[in-house]
């Protein structure tokens, strides 16, 4: 730790055009009270020069192990760090890190660091999807590093696809979450988790739908905290107006049946399924092909039919007995009574039960709950930010996980 008790962040910069975006990330880190040492590769300085990094960080910048050699920087920098964040992490840097190569100050720092390490890859789509890069990413994740999947968007030139560096604010949020857990293990490293979030909509006609008040904030909090703990996250998002958690793979759906199809498809690769989404229990038996008009004779009745029970189906159709299934129960009254009955009926391993209504839970920044376990346990989570609730649930999930498997 730095002598002035500010978190010590090593910001490694790879040789990619996205290096210009990292200047804003550096500004966010320094202005929020972090002590930042920028360690670029030599070729990274072709994109953003040493004076810029030095001026923004307020500290000298070096790329080689022979600079200030009497201070043994290739060992000292890594040992002192509370976090090493590499952005952009090029395909070359990922390969060197995965194979333990150390030919400059940054790669030496990666070998000597004993703190959390976060890689933010940025490269062309073909390079990101190449089997060698995917293998290197899997190796780094298996060792406990957090590798944030790149964003999808405009790349160099006219190319578009996965490989874009996430926005500085998103990377800052990842760094903040990882730093908050810097003294704790990345207990979800090498794990793949499936999270559902938001509220489904069931069409009455092309204009109207049956829905609910879920904002998706709790599910997105689960995704963000899982990423900070090293997991690979598949997020099924239903009608959510929130920024995507950087690094999560997003599948967008609207209705309960679309969510069921996506959840069944993604669950086979998951170690854990977290069903935070508010899935409509019923849908119209038929959706009108055109907008329903007033007739002056009152509305025609809408016949409702039951939607599939996705949580119960995922719990009963497990092809891997080691997969954990966590459900949510939003109740307005008799919360624990209904929660225990639902836990038994659904067959999941954990059920997060919370009271909703009167300004509680839906659309708010905070939440509270009781987590019921199939083993008879009951854990109260006091009122607080939704990210804290998510972390408390992950604390219950992680010890229940079996041995990690190699998953797609």
From TrEMBL:
Necessary cofactors: FMN; Mg(2+)
GO BP of this protein: coenzyme A biosynthetic process; pantothenate catabolic process
Residues annotated as domain DNA/pantothenate metabolism flavoprotein C-terminal: 188-398
Cofactor note: Binds 1 FMN per subunit.
Keyword Ligase belongs to the record: yes
Region (Phosphopantothenoylcysteine decarboxylase): 1-192
Superkingdom in the source lineage: Bacteria
InterPro entries in UniProt: CoaB-like_sf, CoaBC, DNA/pantothenate-metab_flavo_C, Flavin_trans-like, Flavoprotein
Name by which UniProt lists this protein: Coenzyme A biosynthesis bifunctional protein CoaBC
